[in-house]
Fold:
Amino acid sequence: MLPDDVILAVEDLEVSFANQAQKPLRAVRGVSFNIARGETLALVGESGSGKSVTAMTVMRLTEHDGARITAGRIMMRLKNGQVIDLVKLPEKHVEKLRGSEISIVFQDPMSSLNPVFTVGDQIAEAVTHHQNKTKSEARAIALNVLKLVRVPDAIRRLDQYPHQLSGGMRQRVMIAIALACRPSLMILDEPTTALDVTIQAQILDLVRALQTEIGMSVLFITHDMGVVAEIADRVCVMLKGEIVETNSVHEIFSNPKHAYTRALISAVPRLGSMADRDAPEKFPLVVYEPARSPVKEIG
Ligand SMILES: Nc1ncnc2c1ncn2[C@@H]1O[C@H](COP(=O)(O)OP(=O)(O)OP(=O)(O)O)[C@@H](O)[C@H]1O
Structure:
């Protein structure tokens, strides 16, 4: 059974990809964590450490990519209080939970949004997929949710197409779609990596504000300890498919136990003084340069 305040508990999760030439690739190895109601848990680690596979497995989407869950449980508390193991759920049931109980926002809104439908239609579609609403009711919900994610001039935006919005506005629309059916858990997979720094800060502010307002839980995936410092309550550090350290954000930065955690902190110049300077040699990191977008925020 889950403690009352826990929304999601991942227990000893193992996920493998078949690899014809060699033995299967164990992308996620014995991963365990839980997320409380209203909490933001950051999953942090370098490229290939297994963050996205973990997140996509919580959505039960990795099987579509040929992965197999070889062990573990993903216990989820639904909005009606029922607790279920997502691993055991047949696809047709999981499909009903995506968007209504858990939703996910990806890095690149342009590849998630459909270019030929308006913003309003895409949010309304997310609503009518799960709820028995008329077209005009769904449009009213779409308008409210656009306002909730602070899209200025929301009425006009409803009838615009994705290409008419800036990168930051598109990411707000993706968050609006993810929020439309008020899931209790939102997964954000590197949602700000493709945005420039000021827009990134605005999106992080938005996620924080939404959490205070609607009390949802967040699983936030990032490689950037600077972002972790801004957004997380607790942190799981992933390395080569395993979680090597879990702690509160305060403890992670003030008293990092694992050398790899110290290396990640040192990779962020303004946080680096807080961490062990020897660590980067032990765990050389790929240094990320977020793609700078020349798009100017409009409105
Ligand atoms: N569809 C797939 N088929 C085969 N292997 C995959 C697939 N998706 C991911 N992997 C492998 O699983 C491992 C974990 O990848 P994952 O995408 O979870 O890393 P990550 O920590 O999210 O990194 P990134 O930030 O670069 O996405 C990697 O070795 C990756 O190559």
